[in-house]
């Protein structure tokens, strides 16, 4: 299910359509840290997958795992967090290996106080 990350606001005027197109189809590594309301780390997830869609309103959709996988994650439309990855072998916290990903991105999710 897609998320309207902008909630009716206009897309970023600085949206880099060229980079968005370069990102589409690329192999990415994702690090997502979840923080409790007191900034304590609640969970850390590491994923790898292929970027399936890049849209300034609907965000960045990554198909988690290999090309046959069914799980997807929808990320905010933040192109600036994706950095070119150095060549090499990467291992996530579940022991899965990835060779020569295209990009790496890190996200922090802060949970509000209840």
From TrEMBL:
Source organism, top-level taxon: Bacteria
Protein name from the UniProt record: Uncharacterized protein
Species of origin: Rhizobium oryzicola
Organism lineage string: Bacteria, Pseudomonadati, Pseudomonadota, Alphaproteobacteria, Hyphomicrobiales
């Amino acid at each position: 299910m897609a998320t309207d990350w902008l909630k009716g606001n206009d897309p970023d005027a600085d949206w880099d359509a060229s980079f968005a197109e370069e990102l589409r189809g690329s192999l990415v590594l994702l690090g997502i840290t979840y923080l409790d309301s007191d900034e304590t780390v609640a969970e850390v997830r590491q994923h790898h997958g292929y970027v399936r869609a890049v849209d300034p309103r609907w965000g960045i959709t990554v198909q988690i795992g290999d090309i046959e996988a069914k799980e997807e994650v929808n990320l905010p439309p933040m192109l600036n967090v994706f950095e070119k990855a150095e060549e090499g072998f990467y291992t996530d916290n579940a022991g899965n290996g990835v060779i020569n990903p295209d990009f790496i991105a890190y996200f922090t999710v802060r949970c509000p106080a209840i």
